């Protein structure tokens, strides 16, 4: 091995073309998925106070939004629904005329080629805000599974390209896979929120989706943040049950988990750059403390460098504009 002065590592950093030539990791527009919040009603485009630049849309307002997303060459969106009716069993989640089926049909009519991923969970649809059926003050895992399977099926029937269970119930991937296959949707992939942590970074999302628990917390079903080996067990189990793509959520505080999952499994790997991570950057940018494009690209590059193939991020539209302006 050569040593200084023969070895000068700065030689390859001298100019932008040299740096680009030897760059090891790149964020591409094709890596990005843009989350969208859909609310029942008409004529609604409502900005979220804790997430500047992010809106809730009624289904009739989606065509203009997804046409812009398509022009930016972002390949996929991830849908979250906010219903008018909530009850103890989240029945609006699996109603065939619910807010997400309406949204899917509106998007597919406007931009058929855009990939539509749907979040499969009950938290936005239950009156108590938990991700499943509550029995004696606790979320009952097994009673929740058929409702999640029914929700995923209703999304597939409306035209979803991928269903993404985020509830963290044991056995939900298997239940959804069996329901899809039995009903003729063998080709619909499952993107599993395999390692979803009980994170404080979800705060702005819960405002956006109106999904905060009305009592207690989600620590009994979402993962304990200090655990890494447990994440590998969760991922392995979801793969055995039929997950086609796996996810780590959140991303920025869990780069080590992304790396461990990438090194252990060969499945396509998604990471969710969540609402709190987005809000931190936006707040600092509004105070003039950060160079937003540089910080965002550094964050997303770190997620890619850790091993993610797919990055779900609220920054997707901005990033697409920046990349296309280079």
At a glance:
This protein is an alpha/beta fold. It is built from eleven helices and twelve strands.
Write the layout of secondary structure elements.
Blueprint: H1 16-21, E1 32-39, E2 45-48, E3 51-57, H2 62-71, E4 76-82, H3 99-110, E5 115-120, E6 134-135, E7 138-139, H4 141-158, E8 162-165, H5 172-182, E9 191-196, H6 203-209, H7 229-241, E10 245-249, H8 255-264, E11 269-273, H9 275-286, H10 292-306, E12 310-313, H11 316-325
Parallel strand pairs: 1-3, 1-4, 1-12, 4-5, 5-8, 9-10, 10-11, 11-12
Antiparallel strand pairs: 2-3, 6-7
Helix pairs in contact: 2-3, 3-4, 4-5, 8-10
Explain what the structure shows.
The protein has 11 helices and 12 strands. The protein is α/β, with parallel strands linked by helices and 326 residues long. The protein has a single domain (27-325), classed as Alpha-Beta Barrel (TIM Barrel). A hairpin with a 2-residue loop joins strand 2 and strand 3 (51-57). Helix 4 (141-158) packs across helix 5. The relative contact order is 0.13. The model has no long low-confidence stretch (mean pLDDT 94).
CATH topology: TIM Barrel
Shape: globular
**Residue ranges: pLDDT <50 for 5 or more in a row?**
none
Order of helix and strand elements from N to C terminus: HEEEHEHEEEHEHEHHEHEHHEH
Identify the CATH homologous superfamily.
Aldolase class I
The mean pLDDT is 94
What share of the residues lie within helices?
A: 25-40%
